């Protein structure tokens, strides 16, 4: 069972950018926590981050070719407008879990809408780093069911 974690635009700045919304953990710390949990759960995990939309689409295409079991995605701002990423994700045959560190529904109006939500198995937001960990647990539980 292989799970791919995708992080989008500006998320490499976790720990530096707006700690009120995003916490103090860096993306590296988030990836370490995810890798540790994946090891405990007995699943293979790959973490990927890019600030380039086309590269994100290519990574999703590769996930299709590789037959990943599930995808966790925090697309950052792309969540709200990237139909290219949404369409690439729609190609996948595996469950998709949308993740956000902050509660996007309690923030600026433009953040309330996700173009990814309609193709995601679920959305976990507002719990900081735990949003990722909860999503990983949910993905593993779904795949084992």
Salient structural properties:
single chain, 5-stranded parallel beta sheet, 5 helices, Rossmann fold, alpha/beta, 145 residues
What does this structure look like?
- This protein is 40% helix and 18% strand.
- It is an alpha/beta fold and 145 residues long.
- Strand 3 (70-74), helix 4 and strand 4 form a beta-alpha-beta unit.
- The longest helix is centred in the C-terminal third of the chain and has 16 residues, at 129-144.
- The mean pLDDT is 95.
Q: What structural class should be given to the helix and strand makeup?
A: alpha/beta
Q: So, the CATH homologous superfamily?
A: Dehydroquinase, class II
Strand order of the largest sheet: 2-1-3-4-5
Distance between the termini: 13 Å
Major beta sheet summary: 5 strands, parallel
Summarize the amount of helix as a percent range.
40-55%
Number of strands: 5
Shape: globular
CATH class (first level) name:
Alpha Beta
- Give the SSE order as H and E letters: EHHEHEHEEH
What is the tally of helical segments? 5
Global mean pLDDT: 95
Total of domains: 1
CATH architecture: 3-Layer(aba) Sandwich
Beta strand %: 15-25%
- CATH fold annotation: Rossmann fold
Q: Which value, in Å, is the CA radius of gyration?
A: 14 Å
Low-confidence parts, pLDDT < 50 over ≥5 residues? none
Summarize the structure.
The protein is an alpha/beta fold and 145 residues long.
